[in-house]
Give the backbone structure.
Amino acid sequence: MKALVEQVEGILKFRGKRLTKQRRLIIETLKNLQGHFDVQDLHRRVEEADHRISLSTVYRTVNLLKELGFLRALDIGEGYTLYEVVPEFEHHHLVCIRCGRIVEFHCEHCEAIHRRLAENYGFEIVSSQVVLQGYCPKCRKELNTEAL
Ligand SMILES: [Zn+2]
Ligand SMILES: [Zn+2]
């Protein structure tokens, strides 16, 4: 598989646009972030390499990547959005509302439900997101100790 930056460049070229140096740097940084990140995280990392890149440039690049289908937004509640590279295999998320820990999980039952819903409603489902919020084991333990 071609590197993300080359794929993006290819699509932009096709649209008669080119990938700016700043955007290239943002995409390369993003690739090294792994997992789930927010735009501020990404901006901080990008700034280490080039402090002239503004937060709004990072926002615009993230939105472009989302629009092109390389990134997806993850609404983890309270207006907080994380991004991740679109995974090859669908997964869902358990989110700890205390420490922000995120656990990815796969769910065969969810897939079966999606298939059934798609059939019942005549929908073609192209993506889905299940976000379950709660307390992670560590926070549960800490909360229990605090209560004592
Ligand atoms: Zn937690
Ligand atoms: Zn994920």
In short: The radius of gyration is 18 Å. Strands lie at 71-75, 81-85, 92-96, 102-105, 131-134.
